[in-house]
Design a protein that fits this description.
The protein is mostly beta strands. The chain is 6% helix and 48% strand. Strands 10, 12, 13, 14 and 16 form a five-stranded antiparallel beta sheet that branches. Strands 19, 21, 22, 23 and 25 form a five-stranded antiparallel beta sheet that branches. It has a four-stranded antiparallel beta sheet with strand order 2-7-4-5, with no helix packed on it. Helix 1 runs antiparallel to helix 2. The longest helix is centred in the N-terminal third of the chain and has 18 residues. The protein starts with 8 loop residues before the first helix and ends in a 12-residue tail after the last strand. The N terminus and C terminus are likely disordered.
């Protein structure tokens, strides 16, 4: 018998979590025991955060801005920490380094050579660390404003609203931040189900350590024209950051982030007030069909889109519906719920949004989003008039009280905050910016009571008469983790 070395706090926590999970599956009063375990656990700030940003653009005239921010409060008042974004290679140099809590830091890159980035934050800069990548391409076939929040790597991603039709170029960007290779599988589901991929193209894709790879989705199913499809990305080994860069000739380009995990009810927050076209795309991963009620939560409450009260989604197939200019001049959020509350079939969903008309259109996406939870942040907001629009949505039947804070700008300014009450079933627009803001700033949303609350930020940077825009949803920053109280000395475990 060989004695193990003393376990770290992280290992103890993982071991206890595994034991607790086993007890929850086998004990007669599982829910009560889980609640007791949560109540007895203490919450501690995370000690390290990891983010991945995809390569921004293949255009030689692309201008990309990176902004990173840590809101603070979850960490101890004093201490040290570091945070930086660097190219996803073993020899990479830092592109951006954050220096202090509560102040955003930015960097820029020009042209097509900007790489995918990986980033890490530790110490007091880790809890809630957020990074945003914003790229503006002024001209060309796929001009537009492309924004994406850098995300933690994972193993399972859903991308409703991708396409392989003529004039559409959707690239799946995969970034491996780790020291071991990752192996990825990609499946595409159209209106008739699983699209037959060309042999050897969608399975076992190797992503080398500290590297990235982009995959043109249409190359997986040559000759198959899918106007509306769903991509499912999973890893056999390792983990990756994943995002789709979608471009449509004559319409524009933007990033499509992964949608929230499959659920019976979904919220797609922050659809622009002046949207000229809103197309909802949904998919059922399981074996049962889904019938969904479609509601638009606007400033005055929920309404039913004309002639589009429900959507039927067949199991394993992608369904879509054209909601046209559903918001009609008022910021809104789509709320999808089961037509039969007793039959809540899990689904994934996203909307394709177009602003403008004719040759002056731009394209964006809003995926289904999880609630903001305790706190969520979005970076790279601009102080220009009407450049930043924050939308808060409460889909349920309980009002929510929310605190919204605008940080100083990257070049200066005084932070500002306000408390807002969002009525149940509505979407509320919040206008707030730091006083005397210079440069971009961060917006942090905290749920004080009620809810749940969903949120999205639209960034609009017009160019040559085109209403270029991008929408980012906000999700819980998981600044703290529950650490159960140990009842045994696990350092003497043997094998």
């Amino acid at each position: 018998m060989k004695q193990r070395a003393p376990l770290t706090l992280a290992a103890v926590t993982a071991a206890l979590a595994a034991l607790t999970g086993l007890a929850a599956l086998t004990a007669p009063s599982a829910e009560g025991k889980a609640a007791d375990a949560e109540a007895s656990a203490s919450r501690m700030p995370v000690e390290r955060s990891l983010l991945v940003c995809p390569a921004p653009s293949s255009s030689d005239i692309a201008d990309t801005t990176y902004t990173a921010f840590t809101p603070g409060k979850a960490a101890p008042a004093e201490g040290k920490g570091s945070a930086r974004l660097l190219g996803a290679t073993k020899e990479a140099k830092p592109v951006l380094e954050s220096k202090e809590v509560g102040k955003p830091f930015g960097a820029t890159a020009t042209g097509a050579d900007a790489p995918a980035l990986t980033g890490s934050a530790d110490g007091i800069l880790a809890p809630g660390w957020t990074a945003q990548q914003t790229t503006k391409v002024s001209v060309g076939r796929f001009r537009g404003l492309l924004g994406v929040g850098c995300t933690a790597p994972g193993t399972d991603f859903w991308f409703p609203a991708v396409g392989t039709a003529k004039g559409r170029e959707d690239y799946l960007h995969l970034t491996n931040p780790d020291d071991a290779a990752a192996v990825v599988d990609i499946k595409l589901f159209g209106p008739d189900g699983l699209a037959k991929a060309e042999a050897g193209t969608g399975e076992g894709i190797r992503i080398d350590p500290k590297s990235s790879k982009s995959v043109l989705l249409s190359s997986l199913v040559p000759g198959t024209q899918l106007a509306d499809a769903t991509a499912h990305v999973t890893t056999r080994a390792g983990r990756v950051g994943a995002a789709v860069q979608a471009a449509e000739e004559g319409v524009g380009a933007d990033w499509l982030p992964a949608a929230a995990d499959p659920a019976g009810s979904l919220v797609l927050p922050g659809i622009p007030a002046d949207a000229a076209s809103v197309r909802l795309v949904a998919f059922v991963p399981g074996e049962q069909d889904a019938d969904l009620k479609i509601r638009l939560a606007g400033p005055g409450g929920p309404i039913t889109p004309a002639d589009n009260e429900q959507l039927h989604v067949k199991a394993g197939m992608t369904a879509s519906v054209d909601l046209k200019d559903v918001t009609r001049g008022e910021q809104g959020s789509l709320v999808l719920t089961p037509a039969d509350p007793k039959r809540a079939t899990p689904v994934v969903a996203a909307v394709r949004v177009v602003r403008g008309s004719g040759a002056k259109q731009d394209l964006g996406f809003v995926p289904a989003a999880a609630p903001v939870g305790t706190r969520a942040t979005v970076a790279d907001n601009r102080p220009d008039a009407n450049a930043t629009v924050l939308a808060l949505t409460v889909p349920g039947d309980k009002d929510a009280k929310v605190k919204v804070t605008a940080s100083p700008g990257t070049g200066g300014g005084e932070p500002a905050s306000q408390e807002v009450t969002v009525k149940a079933g509505t979407t509320q627009k919040v206008d707030i910016a730091p006083a005397g803001a210079k440069g971009s700033y961060a917006l942090t949303v905290e749920t004080l009571s009620g809810g749940p609350v969903h949120a999205a930020r639209m960034l609009s940077l017009p160019n040559d008469g085109i209403a270029m825009f991008t929408v980012q949803t906000l999700s819980d920053d998981h600044s703290t983790v529950a650490v159960p109280k140990a009842t045994e000395d696990l350092s003497v475990l043997t094998r």
